[in-house]
Amino acid sequence: MAKVADIGSKGLINLAPDAWVKWVTQRPEVVAREILGSEFHWISRETDVLVKAYSATHGDFLVLNELQLRYTTQMPLRMRVYAALAQERYRLPTYPVLINILPPSSSLTIVSSYEQEFLGLRAIQDYRTINLWEIDAEIVFEQPLPSLLPFVPILRGGEEVSVVQRALEALRADEQLNELESLLAFFASFVLDTPLVQEIMRWDMAVLRESPWYHEIEQRGIQQGARRQLIRVLEQRFGEIPHEVEVRFEGESVEKLENLMDSAIAVNSLDEFVSILFI
Question: 169 vs 112, 126, 159, 198, 258, CA distance in Å?
Fold first, then answer.
């Protein structure tokens, strides 16, 4: 069984750290010196990777990489905290980068800075945001960027079977990349029929469970199922559901959705349900 780091953020970036820091900073002269520990006291996350980089112009600095499955409203504050902790620990300027893997819900707006004003004092933290669904899949093959090969199916233009197969061939051609085939298959299942994915590539659930994103995706699948079931019950009982009501279900825990399901069954009108929802 592969280790967590093999198919997690750190393992992926470690495949070609120079190519990675050049890409995320958009500066061809930058090189990676080493991947550093990103455990800060009580904070330890498998999706954060801290790389010590160097350029002749700026000297040594840190590239803080946060690979997030889906953007949430907590990310700006998290980026501020991580950037400050990294700079405090290593005493180097920090370049924070947020890489969003999958698009968030339509109700969320992705921002690239944290800003707060309190009692006349301001806190500001800018960071670079990279949305993978906006990145052209061809870049992965041209540069090349082996760290992004497992994500090819969810990149722009990467949903074509021929493009997924190119990514698969690249993984199989390099012994170091072989273990990433299951991760590629996993993300391919977002855009291709699962039977087709399982037919053309290896699907090893034991390996997939070592991915830091697997459990989050699995949990989100359960949440989405509960959300769809709740909407179905409401539509069957009361007809079309207002969009603002459906939006309120997004991001709710499975337990909360199950409680709302009980309410949807018990109430006598949609207005009564809405009054409970907006309490």
Answer: 35, 38, 16, 15, 44
Contact 152, 131 (CB under 8 A): no
pLDDT by position in tens, the chain (length 279): 334 335 678 888 999 999 999 999 999 999 999 998 767 655 556 668 999 999 999 999 999 999 998 898 999 999 999 999 999 999 999 999 999 998 887 778 999 999 999 999 999 999 999 999 999 999 999 999 999 999 999 999 999 999 999 999 999 998 888 888 888 988 888 888 877 887 888 777 666 677 777 766 666 666 767 788 888 888 888 888 888 888 788 767 777 888 888 888 888 888 888 888 876
- pTM of the full predicted structure? 0.75
CA-based nearest residue to 160, from 192, 182, 194:
192
Q: Are 149 and 158 in contact (CB under 8 A)?
A: no
What is the CA 158 to chain-centroid distance, rounded?
17
Which one, of 184, 190, 139, lies nearest residue 164 by Cα?
184
For 272, the token pair is: 């009564």
